[in-house]
Amino acid sequence: MDIGRQYLGWNVEVHYLFYTAGSDRGVLTAIDDRWIVLTRNPGSPREDQLVIPISSIRLLKPLSPEEGPGMRLLRPVEGEEQPREAVEGATEE
Description:
Elements: H1 2-5, E1 10-16, E2 23-31, E3 35-40, E4 48-53, E5 57-65
Antiparallel strand pairs: 1-2, 1-5, 2-3, 3-4
């Protein structure tokens, strides 16, 4: 299942073949020809891993890449004065 390997590290939703109302969300952490490993709540004290047989999966829906340090939006702290850079041709107010 080479198609699923491109989504390693992504947040995915797994819909099962035999459980019509059941689905799980988490990070796809491993995949081979017969199993996938889905990690729910990664990095938290409630982290758990599900080992799911490929034969029981109806749909594997990619949601988004995992949010890691490279995905964070960095902003300055409000109220903290930031140094300004001089821009050529700009006038001071």
